[in-house]
Specification:
The structure is a single chain. With about 525 residues, the protein is α/β, with parallel strands linked by helices. It folds into two domains: about 210 residues; about 260 residues, Nitrilase/N-carbamoyl-D-aminoacid amidohydrolase, CATH 3.60.110. About 45% of the residues lie in helices and about 15% in strands. It contains 15 helices and 13 strands. The strands form two sheets. Strands 1, 2, 3, 4, 5, 6 and 13 form a seven-stranded mixed sheet that branches. Strands 7-8-9-10-11-12 form a six-stranded mixed sheet, covered by helices on one side. The longest helix has 25 residues. It is globular, with a radius of gyration of 26 Å.
Length: about 525
């Protein structure tokens, strides 16, 4: 068990290295294969041990950036997320006893990823296998099967490699053929890659206003943060007026462009109006808006230079313990220092339709929303032509979190076949093409405006249409595989009593032997 656990920890670390900032994507299938081998031959009661070891190696390294919030926050979150891999370890050990076990285990892996992406509270999708495939041969499959489908394919690839390792002689023919088939499918998606049809071009300006001081405290001088956005937009308007740059169709400001309600704070309201009137086109403003004495909303507000505030998108997935406190009436009494800083709970948005900004149908996401499928899929399915991401990564500006989130954003461009425009308070901002390439970006901790021409697309990739169904199918397969293990299997009784020689033959239940038998 010690050797299994050491193998699992090392494979977990290897999987973390497949993500940014190392981005060694080729480690993905080998890390999964190591997890599968570490749990093979164990009972479900013991499979959780290497599973937990894998989760510790993976999540403690992947989310090391969480230390910018606090070491206790990092240890608590990483420890909790590692428990999901402990459960997967037990499930994997049980599913090894089924025929075609690589398929069952791959389905179980995706079930686990979908489960922890939604539960508890708003879940934590960080670390899904598909989030590491940007710039790899696997990314071209995203429009066809979606991010969940790519995770399934990578989990299956890892399980097939494990099958190849434990097979011998002629038994290796099956995993070899399966791996060849996987390679052929991957090659096909690269040769016939998804080609989004562009209906027209528009120009979008993304403003990165920068954050005063060290850059990691958005509230240190929140009025200056807003003023930076205003100043950068008015400077853009001056360049447009002088003919240096074309006038954009709309301007994108980041999340937390205003940390106070722009409808009740006169100074903030005046600044937004001055910027919108100067540029003469709508601004998609990232603002914190009051929602009663105990709640706030994190919104993207379409601010027209003539009519003022209009349509709004509200962040769908606020961060638990960072933007809202569950069971507040019990936790408030404990006087936990960091939690007392969250004075009001942020409410979740429910919008499913895109915003209309300057005549463009825009699917908006606010910060961690980009890690979730639901809001993006629903808006694209309802006519979104362009994706925008408003984010405030100031808390993590000195960590690798911003690179990991930007990689997810690039994945969304490929998956949806849409251009993506990202505005961050002080990094990373950028403009991403539908093939995942970064057309423009701004240096971190600088004030910059990216004024770029982007294409609008209306086609809906099949992977987006699949939506959550891949995850649901994997959940059903996992349940079926586990049920087959608890339902007793009874062979048909022979018509005649077996002779002495037949009676001496070992029973035909390889899963009941002490030595693991490969399928």
């Amino acid at each position: 068990m010690l050797l299994r656990s050491v193998l699992a920890v090392l494979c977990g670390v290897a999987l973390a290295l497949a993500f940014e900032p190392v981005a060694a994507w080729f480690l993905l299938p080998f890390a999964v294969a190591g997890f599968v081998l570490a749990t093979r031959g164990l009972t479900a009661r013991r499979g959780w041990i290497p599973g937990l070891a894998f989760g510790v190696g993976f999540y403690f390294v992947l989310t090391y950036w969480m230390r910018s919030v606090g070491t206790d926050a990092w240890l608590g979150m990483a420890s909790f997320e590692a428990l999901f891999y402990a459960v997967l370890g037990s499930v994997s050990a049980a599913l090894h006893r089924r025929r075609l076990w690589p398929l069952w285990i791959a389905a179980a892996w995706v079930t686990m990823e979908s489960w922890r992406a939604d539960w508890p509270f708003s879940g934590m999708p960080w670390g899904r296998l598909s989030f590491a495939v940007v710039d790899s041969p696997f990314q071209t499959a995203l429009p066809y099967v979606g991010s969940t489908g790519v995770s399934l394919g990578l989990a299956l690839l890892g399980a097939l490699l494990a099958w190849l390792v434990v097979s011998h002689g002629r038994d290796r023919l099956a995993p070899v053929c399966a791996l060849v088939g996987f390679g052929v499918l991957t090659t096909m998606t690269n040769v016939w890659s998804y080609d989004p049809h562009t209906v027209r071009d528009v120009t979008v300006a993304a403003v990165q206003g920068d954050v005063p001081g060290n850059g990691d405290n958005i509230l240190l001088d929140y009025r200056q943060v807003t003023q930076n956005q205003v100043d950068a937009t008015i400077a853009l308007a001056d360049r447009v007026a002088s003919g240096e740059q074309p006038r954009p169709d709309f301007v994108l400001w980041p999340e937390n462009s205003t940390a106070v309600d722009p409808f009740s704070d006169a100074i903030t309201n005046a600044g937004i109006r001055a910027a919108s009137e100067a540029i003469g086109v709508p601004i998609l403003v990232g603002a914190i808006v009051d929602a009663g004495p105990g709640h706030v909303l994190n919104q993207g507000i379409v601010w027209d230079p003539v009519t003022g505030a209009g349509e709004r998108y509200t962040k769908r997935h606020p961060v638990v313990f960072g933007e809202y406190i569950p069971f507040r009436k019990f936790l408030d009494g404990l006087k936990i220092g960091r939690l007392t800083m969250v004075g009001r709970d942020m409410l979740s948005g429910t919008r499913k339709t895109p915003l209309t900004v300057g005549g463009v149908e825009v699917a908006d996401s606010i910060c961690f929303d980009v890690a979730y499928d639901d809001g993006i899929y629903e808006q694209v399915d309802r006519g979104a032509e362009l994706l925008t991401v408003q984010t405030s990564n100031a808390t993590f500006i000195h960590t690798d979190q911003i690179e990991q989130q930007f990689a997810m954003t690039r994945l969304r461009a490929v998956e949806t076949g849409r251009w993506v425009v990202v505005a961050s308070t002080n990094g990373l901002s950028g403009v991403i093409a539908p093939d995942g390439s970064v057309v423009a970006t701004a240096e971190k901790r600088t004030q910059a405006v990216m004024d770029e021409q982007v294409g609008l697309s209306t086609g809906i990739p099949f992977g987006v249409r699949l939506g959550p169904w891949t995850g649901r199918a994997c959940f059903a397969l996992t349940c079926l595989g586990l049920l087959l293990g608890v339902v007793p299997y009874r062979r048909r009784q022979p018509l005649q009593e077996p002779g002495p020689r037949e009676a001496a033959v070992a029973p035909d239940f390889p899963h009941e032997t002490s030595t693991p038998i490969s399928t």
